[in-house]
Design a protein that fits this description.
The protein is mostly helical and about 500 residues long. It is about 80% helix and about 0% strand. Keywords: Cell membrane, Membrane, Transmembrane, Transmembrane helix, Transport.
Length: about 500
């Protein structure tokens, strides 16, 4: 979920290992845990927050997309700021800002205030995540030590999502959904207190100009697209409304302007030569489509478990763990197979498995069994995701010059976040439209029938969302089959991968 740093090849660091590097790794790991926790902990809290703040079904996706939009849209700029302004300084500002935004969100009294706080978390997360990885890159200069450091970082990135699901359940059930945000404050303060004495400062030198116009335009363009999808989900608007298509059209126009800015910029946010390579372009499209299907599906799975099956937040957290188990299994297998098979085979098998798991979730009902249906479907989904994401990380670096390595790796993470933003908004629109259509087609005769109809309508809407999520992931597999031409001998070495994270 977090971005790789911009390539620090112009650093003028003192050669040799830093004496406090392992202690610094512990500090960086704490901050990474905070960012990863935030991606899953809020999903468990959402049903309670929605009731407490009166958030509508059409607007509920902003709790997720406000964060992922700001995070994904500003990741590349955050990486450059970390390299040029100072990695420790950026790390500390990111941690302070993330904690402050979490406080605002935890104390929010309205839906829009919560959405704004989540967007601020994304802004400061876009500083914190690339600064953390860049610090690791310059602290660990020996290849074997660097591989160990990134293994620790990656383990937290993978396991932190599971911790977030469980912690979100505990906090929501026994304290309040607000603590799912407020818990970031003590974590950030601990990281700051330790960072001051333990983490050294480092900077890149040379051309330190920023492509601020590019970052602003691409973020506004994506936000406009998401808002257009949100308008389509509202009962009084829909796909026929002029405002829906106005925002979608404005979003697309701004993305075209972004491309023009990147073509003309002396130091572009995203050098287009990175994207236009056939293999990397295929990798970025795959990342975006899988992210689109995945983020939205996780949201609706959480809503289904709590709103329809009546699971408590803690039970819903445990019930969401099979996806993580599947990812950990397949990621381990894929890491061993990748040098032998190359990325293409794994990246074709992965989406098929993930889509099969997603399609299985399409057949949910009012009383679906967890052990017979939900657990195997989630494990299958997780297995597919692991087989997809492990080779994607290496594929993004194939044939990349060293000075573009940071941007290429960060762009992969950004496309996943951006895909998640657009996918969540689109799938939420599909689900709410299906829910409204079901209620129109099945008008209840009385209060009890009305409650039953409302639950059945939610099941119908979530099932539609799972179906479209499966379709998005399958398209990602097709793109892999058409675009990817990389063999196992073309993959970057372990040292290169470790260098950029």
């Amino acid at each position: 979920m977090s971005a790789a740093p911009q390539a620090p090849e112009t650093d003028r660091e003192v050669p040799g290992p830093h004496p406090r590097r392992w202690a610094a790794l512990g500090v960086i790991a704490i901050s990474q845990l905070m960012v990863v926790l935030d991606a899953t902990i809020v999903n468990i809290a959402l049903p309670s927050a929605r009731v407490d703040l009166g958030i509508t079904e059409a607007d509920q996706q902003w709790v997720v997309t406000a964060y992922t939009l700001a995070f994904g849209g500003l990741l590349l700029l955050g990486g450059r700021i970390a390299d040029y302004w100072g990695r420790k300084r950026t790390f500390m500002v990111g941690a302070i800002g993330f904690a402050a935004a979490s406080a605002v969100g935890g104390l929010a009294t309205t839906g829009p205030l919560l959405f704004g706080a989540r967007a601020l978390q994304g802004v400061f997360g876009a500083l914190l995540a690339p600064a953390s990885l860049a610090l690791l890159t310059v602290l660990f200069v020996e290849a074997r030590e660097r591989a160990k450091a990134f293994a620790v970082y990656g383990a937290i990135a993978g396991g932190g999502s599971a911790v977030g699901l469980l912690l979100g359940g505990v906090l929501t059930e026994y304290a309040s959904w607000r603590w799912c945000l407020l818990v970031n404050i003590p974590i950030a303060l601990l990281a700051l207190a330790l960072a001051i004495p333990l983490v050294p400062e480092s900077k890149a030198h040379g051309d330190t100009s920023y492509d601020v116009p590019g970052a602003v335009v691409v973020t506004l363009g994506l936000a406009s697209l998401v808002y257009g999808f949100t308008e389509a989900a509202k009962p009084d608007k829909g796909w026929d409304a002029g405002t829906t298509w106005a925002f979608i059209g404005a979003g697309l126009a701004l993305l075209v302007v972004f491309v023009v800015i990147e073509l003309r910029s002396r130091n572009p946010l995203l050098p287009l030569r990175i994207v236009l390579d056939r293999n990397r372009g295929g990798a970025y499209l795959t990342s975006m489509l899988v992210g689109a299907g995945l983020f939205g599906a996780f949201l609706f799975l959480t809503l289904y478990l709590q709103n329809v099956l009546g699971y408590t937040p803690l039970r819903a957290g445990f019930a969401s763990l099979p996806v993580t188990v599947g990812v950990l299994i397949s990621a381990t297998v894929a890491s061993n197979l990748l040098p032998r098979t190359g990325p293409k085979l794994l990246m074709m098998v992965g989406p098929v498995l993930a889509a099969a798991g997603m399609l299985s979730l399409r057949f949910i009902d009012l009383d679906t069994s967890f052990w017979a249906h939900l657990m195997p479907a989630q494990v299958l989904l997780g297995l597919g995701l692991g087989f997809t994401f492990v080779p994607l990380s290496s594929l993004a670096l194939v044939g990349v010059p060293e000075h573009d390595a940071g941007a290429a790796s960060a762009a992969l993470n950004a496309t996943q976040q951006i895909g998640g933003s657009l996918g969540t908004a689109l799938l939420n629109t599909i689900a709410t439209s299906a829910i409204a259509a079901y209620l129109v087609a099945h008008p209840p005769a009385g209060p009890e029938e009305g409650r039953q109809a409302a639950l059945s309508a939610q099941v119908d809407g979530y099932a539609d969302a799972f179906t479209w999520a499966a379709a998005l992931i399958l398209v990602a597999g097709l793109i892999t089959a058409v675009f990817i031409r990389v063999g196992r001998e073309d993959l970057p070495t372990g040292e290169t991968v470790a260098h950029v994270g």
